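Hi C.,

You asked whether I'd gotten around to modeling the 416-residue construct. I have! Everything is below, sequence then structure, no commentary in between.
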Amino acid sequence: MSKPEGKGREGGRGGNSRMDCGSQTGSIPDSPRSSHLAIDIGGSLIKLVYCSRGSGESAADENCCSSTESAKISNGINFHSLRGGRLHFQTFETSKVADCIEFIRSKKTDFGGGWHLEGSKEKNVIKATGGGAYKFADLFKEQLDIVLDKQDEMDCLVAGANFLLKAVHHEAFTYRDGVKDFVQINDKDLFPYLLVNIGSGVSMIKVDGIGKFERVSGTSVGGGTFLGLGKLLTQCKSFDELLELSHKGNNRVVDMLVGDIYGGNDYNKIGLASTNIASSFGKAISEDKELHEYQPEDISRSLLRMISNNIGQISYLNALRYGLKRIFFGGFFICGHAYTMDTISVAVHYWSKGEAEALFLRHEGFLGALAFAWVLWLVALASTPNVGVDDEFLAGIRGFVAGSSWVGDQNCKVYS
């Protein structure tokens, strides 16, 4: 059962709107241009992160534009303490991997001469994580003459999250009743925490320190469930289309509420309000209606609420099990979507009786790929005086890089 829906407002905008899942724009000039690519190929989405430097970017580069319809763009994040440059973020549906390959082909002059493996004759190598790094390895080699250097998915998720939480200002925030509040993270008191990554499925990872983590739980009911059932029930063709439908829907048309069972009354003895959901999609049991008689907007809203509620509840139960008060939610299922975040937040608050809170990340969908891209910048940070990065963090970076035998070119040298 879930608590009532939040009011859903943010900065005066309608609460059912989808917030921009991108980040800041702009670049830092006066550096040689050099670009590198990292990729996270999941079961539903491909996430790209690439960095560019210098002032030679065109207007098209400023917005990271692509001509492919399946590409979803967000602008770059700046690291103002470093020599100059920008990280760019982009996604493709995994089922349209050909579009991703064409995008990389169009940018290949930027990425060319980039990563190579130490001791290897292969010239064009990019860091890759996720199951698709194995599934599509031959395709990338055949189509682009690129070798995917496969890295462990859990290692990358945790490394990317640690980087964002330690190095990026205003990265984490809470979201309740449409109000978004940034949370200042003390990097000396970051650990332990629970990282909930919502991709096609859901992984729940207890993070105890740099390079110290354990996957403690998970569920198969995640973003892939939302998109898969959504396509079957509403005939939607894409994740974004399904989210747009949910903006306009009313889950109470198909969900059975406590009030539907108790004649509009609360069940006060056990603390359930009449507006609590007793059974997701429960009204379909008693109504003599066919699927086509339900509005797809209402179905998608109910589906989104059901999945988000359950993820929030399971996450809190795992946090309770390990005595964790801080729960960070990542994964492209969220993508700054107001209703999703509000539902997860309400679930965590409800089941914890206010003792725990859900925290979200501005770059939640790119944790795996960011595990690689940030090394370019953090290594430069190691040689920049008085930037306030602790020795343990830098040691973790060096260990991550050394473990993956990763070196760069002369303009972006990492470790050799």
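If it helps when you're writing up: Residues 1-35, 55-84, 112-118, 397-416 have pLDDT under 50 and may be disordered.

Thanks,
B.
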